[in-house]
Design brief:
GO molecular function, one term: zinc ion binding
Strand order of the largest sheet: 1-2-3-4
Domain SWIM-type: 66-113
Main location: nucleus
Family: Belongs to the FHY3/FAR1 family.
Number of strands: 4
Helix content: 40-55%
Oligomer: single chain
Protein name: Protein FAR1-RELATED SEQUENCE
Largest sheet: 4 strands, antiparallel
């Protein structure tokens, strides 16, 4: 399990998936924000978004209400969009349940010609920056990314184990290595 997490973190940190969908700008934005695994899930939502049709829209004093339906289906969903805080709500409640915007909201984003997903629709736990501590949010020149750090840490532990094994074979070697480490 731990190895899969490290591999998934590495894949998210290095290299981006290939853009395949006609909603290229949205997809490019999502690739930069979400981890690879969440992006794969979200890509399915983007694929289905082309089937969403905005049936009607009504502007109120506080928000805009949209009624959307899937192509050739009789059911409809209601989406509200608060322009002031850029917050979306859908009657399907997928965003509230899974933390990933639903196909209905993405259909409205496409209708509104948005090329980025508003912050209110991006949960921090699904982003590439989720595992960074608040102090590490600022990247300095020469700083090592998390996945590279994990790899270097594992390699250094292996080297240290080998050093301990060799230096503890004889008393003379042990004292020699101990004094070298203490002096440096």
């Amino acid at each position: 399990m731990r190895k899969r997490v490290v591999v998934a973190d590495y894949k998210s940190a290095y290299g981006d998936p290939v853009v395949k969908i006609r909603l290229e700008e949205l997809e490019r934005f999502v690739v930069t924000v979400y981890t690879r695994e969440v992006f794969v899930l979200f890509r399915e939502v983007l694929l289905l978004a082309s089937n969403v049709r905005v049936v009607s829209s009504k502007k109120t004093s506080t928000c805009t209400l949209f009624e959307v339906a899937m192509y050739c289906q009789g059911r409809s969903w209601n989406i509200s969009w608060g322009e002031m805080d850029d917050e979306f709500r859908c009657s399907c409640l997928r965003m509230e349940s899974f933390g990933i915007p639903c196909v209905h909201i993405i259909g409205v984003l496409v209708r509104l010609n948005m090329i980025v997903i508003p912050d209110s629709l991006i949960l921090g736990r699904w982003t590439k920056k989720a595992k960074q501590s608040p102090i590490n949010n600022y990247v300095f020149s020469g700083e090592i990314p998390d996945a590279a750090y994990m790899s270097m840490h594992a390699a250094m532990l292996d080297d240290c184990r080998e050093l301990v094994k060799l230096s503890c074979s004889y008393f003379e070697d042990y004292f020699e290595v101990k004094t070298k480490i203490a002096n440096e």
